[in-house]
Amino acid sequence: MLRVAVPNKGSLSEAASSMLSEAGYRQRREGRELVMLDPENDVEFFFLRPRDIAVYVGQGTLDVGITGRDLLIDAEVEAEELLPLGFAASTFRFAGPAGEFASVDQLEGRRVATSYDGLVRTYLADQGVKPARIVRLDGAVESSVRLGVADAIADVVETGNTLKAAGMEVFGDPILQSEAVLIGRKGHVMPAIEVLIRRLTGVLVARKYVLMDYDVRKELVEQASALTPGLESPTVSPLRDSEWVAVRSMVPKRETNRVMDELYDLGARAILVSSIHACRI
Ligand SMILES: Nc1ncnc2c1ncn2[C@@H]1O[C@H](COP(=O)(O)OP(=O)(O)OP(=O)(O)O)[C@@H](O)[C@H]1O
Ligand SMILES: O=P(O)(O)OC[C@H]1O[C@H](OP(=O)(O)OP(=O)(O)O)[C@H](O)[C@@H]1O
Ligand SMILES: [Mg+2]
């Protein structure tokens, strides 16, 4: 049986469960279950704190899990990223009181507060910067400078609103671009993991693409196909009117309107767009 760790709380939890549901797995509804069996898929789900998920997967107690890339790196365990999942995107950045810091070098000899001490320690060591101390806090890190326990912070930044409200601003290059990821133990292969990855990839593709159908005059099919190349190649079918063909192709969702406009300008007609519910690529 495949044993999968799923975030039980926080920013990752809801989106992780709905992605697994879309991939055909059973998920808890509103319950507070710690463990849930999905006998139909031969999978057992363990609902855990996202920060702890890398530890369980790294130790091999659980086969795979969903967590944040930042949390995986911070945990410093024998687990690796198997698939980026396209939600809970954020950056991980240094910040300080507005106007006080311009570059990471200025952290030399200063105190840095963070909930991600492993990640920050490694990053600063790689940059050759020696802070006076890394102050490990559980959350609300933005308050630490005002309260006098640190000079600067390193934290998750999504909209930047929390930093702004605390009178702080980011400095230096982003330490990391993070998002939710599926993780597994290095070198651990199992057919059920392959199936999970294929299913999740199917959800990602279904979310990212639409299906586009249109009719176009035969002599324009090459030009039209260039606008809608699809993943491999568009399907071209004959129509009763032999001067025209029907074309079907997958198109990135965010390009839908631009592609429809360009197809129409080219002379394509009956352009129809439908969403994809599931797929295997
Ligand atoms: N706005 C955000 N705030 C915090 N974490 C975020 C945000 N957006 C995405 N994430 C990601 O969520 C993960 C942190 O989840 P975690 O559940 O530990 O903290 P949380 O969402 O801040 O919840 P809480 O602080 O309520 O426990 C990280 O991978 C982080 O990059
Ligand atoms: O850039 P923003 O959109 O403002 O989001 C980032 C903030 O959100 C998270 O805090 P959270 O609400 O989880 O509280 P915590 O710091 O106590 O974990 C994170 O730690 C940042 O403080
Ligand atoms: Mg938080």
From TrEMBL:
Keywords assigned by UniProt, alphabetized: Amino-acid biosynthesis, ATP-binding, Cytoplasm, Glycosyltransferase, Histidine biosynthesis, Magnesium, Metal-binding, Nucleotide-binding, Transferase
Pathway the protein takes part in: Amino-acid biosynthesis; L-histidine biosynthesis; L-histidine from 5-phospho-alpha-D-ribose 1-diphosphate: step 1/9
Cofactor: Mg(2+)
Signal peptide: none
Compartmental location: Cytoplasm
Record's catalysed reaction(s): 1-(5-phospho-beta-D-ribosyl)-ATP + diphosphate = 5-phospho-alpha-D-ribose 1-diphosphate + ATP
GO cellular component: cytoplasm
GO molecular function, one term: ATP phosphoribosyltransferase activity
Span of domain Histidine biosynthesis HisG C-terminal: 206-277
Keyword Repeat: no
UniProt main location, coarse: cytoplasm
Known regulation of activity: Feedback inhibited by histidine.
EC number, UniProt record: 2.4.2.17
Domain ATP phosphoribosyltransferase catalytic, chain residue ranges per copy: 49-201
Stored InterPro entries: ATP-PRT_HisG_long, ATP_PRibTrfase_cat, ATP_PRibTrfase_CS, ATP_PRibTrfase_HisG, HisG_C, N-reg_PII-like_a/b, N-reg_PII/ATP_PRibTrfase_C
Pfam families: HisG, HisG_C
Protein's GO biological process: L-histidine biosynthetic process
NCBIfam families assigned: hisG (TIGR00070), HisG_C-term (TIGR03455)
Function text: Catalyzes the condensation of ATP and 5-phosphoribose 1-diphosphate to form N'-(5'-phosphoribosyl)-ATP (PR-ATP). Has a crucial role in the pathway because the rate of histidine biosynthesis seems to be controlled primarily by regulation of HisG enzymatic activity.
Family that this chain belongs to: Belongs to the ATP phosphoribosyltransferase family. Long subfamily.
Name listed for the protein in its UniProt record: ATP phosphoribosyltransferase
Organism: Sinomonas humi
Gene name for this UniProt entry: hisG
